[in-house]
């Protein structure tokens, strides 16, 4: 197998991973920080892609199209928060209802199931015009966005509102005892989280040159894979380590997927792995990432027990 092909797989996987990492950061805010299982993300990622694609095609500046996608994602998060906090709908069902409704909304926005951006000016084509090599444009743009977002989220966690948001996920009873309204922070977390997910969708649509109604299917599982892999690699340290770990986890996940496909294409396996098998592979990766901490802890306990003898 050519080393050049392996290097291309790493570069391509890292590019997609860094763009999807923005989505994983949004999911981290709801799933880990807020302790809220939000299924809205499958719909809000496609919403971001749809809005970004339509805005770019209508002549809007690409960066403003990404901003518009982010705002629409925040609105989707606000709807889920309203259903949960005001209408007393359970968190899982509230996310499912919003996600379900977004399918029709996304179709309305695009007018069809697939919206192409052929020959349209995107953020990535603008970077190419500045002289950046095309093979590095996606990685550089994604890296700039991720660095800015990690700094912004980390600083946000240090504010009074950010601390209250973290406390709502860790100990809501304490937050209530201090006189704060946990419902406000739940809605805030969902708004910010889904905004980041939609931003990722907006960038992804411009990067791949189209938005698709099904581009958000499996988003929550992919995000969980990134979070779990990041936690295995970085363990549970400071918040900056955790945020960086989510990004690294997303990149590692995409590189693993690229390698699996490469091995399948260049092997004599009876059963060839195709794009249709990615959901199964993702499920296996997530399962391994979930099992790994327990195995690591068990191994450390055994070694400690042997040392005490």
Structure description:
The protein is mainly alpha-helical and 309 residues long. The chain has a single domain (3-303), classed as ABC transporter involved in vitamin B12 uptake, BtuC, CATH 1.10.3470. The protein has 12 helices and 2 strands; from the N terminus they run H-H-H-H-E-H-H-H-H-H-E-H-H-H. The protein has a two-stranded antiparallel sheet. The protein is globular and about 55 Å long. The chain starts with a helix and ends with a helix.
Which descriptors would you attach to this protein?
309 residues, mainly alpha, ABC transporter involved in vitamin B12 uptake, BtuC, two-stranded antiparallel sheet, 12 helices, globular
Mean pLDDT across residues: 87
Structural class: mainly alpha
Low-confidence stretches: none
Largest sheet: 2 strands, antiparallel
Summarize the amount of helix as a percent range. Answer: over 70%
Radius of gyration over all CA atoms, rounded: 20 Å
Number of domains: 1
The N- to C-terminal Cα distance equals 48 Å
Return the CATH topology.
Answer: ABC transporter involved in vitamin B12 uptake, BtuC
Strand runs, count: 2
Compute the number of helices. Answer: 12
Order of helices and strands: HHHHEHHHHHEHHH
């Amino acid at each position: 197998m050519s080393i050049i092909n392996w290097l291309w797989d790493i570069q391509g996987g890292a590019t997609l991973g860094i763009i999807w990492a923005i989505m994983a950061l949004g999911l981290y805010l709801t799933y880990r920080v807020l302790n809220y299982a939000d299924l809205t993300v499958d719909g809000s990622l496609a919403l971001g892609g749809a809005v970004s694609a339509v805005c770019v095609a209508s002549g809007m500046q690409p960066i403003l199209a990404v901003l518009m996608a982010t705002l629409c994602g925040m609105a989707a998060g606000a709807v889920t928060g309203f259903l949960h906090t005001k209408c007393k709908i359970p968190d899982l069902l509230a996310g499912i209802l919003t996600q379900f409704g977004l399918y029709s909304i996304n179709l309305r926005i695009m007018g069809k199931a697939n919206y192409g951006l052929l020959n349209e000016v995107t953020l990535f084509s603008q970077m190419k015009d500045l002289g950046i090599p095309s093979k590095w444009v996606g990685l550089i743009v994604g890296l700039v966005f991720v660095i800015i977002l990690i700094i912004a989220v980390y600083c946000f966690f240090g504010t009074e509102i950010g601390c209250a948001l973290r406390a709502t996920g860790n100990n809501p009873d304490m937050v209530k005892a201090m006189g704060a309204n946990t419902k406000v922070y739940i809605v805030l977390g969902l708004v910010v989280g889904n905004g980041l997910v939609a931003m990722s969708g907006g960038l992804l649509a411009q990067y791949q040159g189209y938005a698709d109604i099904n581009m958000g299917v499996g988003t929550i599982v992919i995000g969980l894979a990134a979070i779990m892999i990041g936690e295995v690699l970085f363990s549970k340290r400071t918040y900056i380590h955790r945020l960086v770990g989510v990004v690294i986890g997303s990149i590692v996940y995409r590189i693993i997927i690229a390698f699996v496909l490469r091995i399948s294409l260049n092997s004599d396996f009876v059963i060839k792995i195709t794009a249709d098998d990615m959901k199964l592979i993702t499920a296996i990766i997530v399962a391994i990432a979930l099992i790994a901490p327990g195995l690591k802890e068990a191994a450390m306990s055994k070694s400690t027990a042997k040392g005490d003898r």
